[in-house]
């Protein structure tokens, strides 16, 4: 798990572009602001880069989030980017090796999502 601050320059560039399109900050539609947030979360989660088999926008602990998941062989990968506030994104990155341990016992037979879903963000 880690926390990143949304770069001020990125937010400024995004705002400047929206002002160019809509004329002023107070005229930017709420749905455009939501799309900008989703775009940022997708970028941080890695879903838009094609690193994962599936990615989707979700609500996680009542916060906007983007989840990216993949299974390669016996390994399940998952990364979620969660908007903590207007300046901060929390990232949970999970890798689960589901292969049997020596002696035939399976360490964990769930997916990365099972671990991510067990975490509460306050």
Give the structure's gist in a few sentences.
The protein is of the alpha+beta class. The protein has one domain (2-117).
- In whole angstroms, the N-to-C terminal distance is 14 Å
Rg over alpha carbons: 17 Å
Biggest beta sheet attributes: 5 strands, antiparallel
Q: What is the ordering of alpha helices and beta strands?
A: EHHEEEEH
Provide structural commentary.
The chain is an alpha+beta fold and 122 residues long. It has one domain. It is built from three helices and five strands, in the order βααββββα. The chain has helices at 8-22, 30-45, 112-117; strands spanning 2-5, 54-60, 63-72, 75-85, 88-97. The chain has a five-stranded antiparallel beta sheet. The two termini are 14 Å apart. The mean pLDDT is 86.
């Amino acid at each position: 798990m880690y926390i990143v601050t949304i770069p001020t320059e990125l937010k400024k560039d995004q705002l400047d572009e929206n002002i160019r399109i809509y004329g002023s900050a107070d005229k930017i539609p709420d749905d455009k602001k939501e799309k900008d947030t989703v775009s940022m979360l997708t970028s941080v989660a890695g879903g838009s880069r094609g690193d994962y088999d599936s990615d989707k926008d979700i609500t996680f602990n009542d916060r906007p989030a983007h989840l990216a998941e993949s299974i390669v062989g016996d390994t399940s990968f998952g990364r979620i980017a969660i908007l903590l506030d207007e300046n901060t994104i929390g990232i949970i990155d999970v890798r689960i090796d589901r292969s049997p341990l020596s002696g035939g016992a399976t360490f964990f037979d769930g997916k990365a999502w099972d671990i991510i879903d067990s975490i509460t963000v306050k």
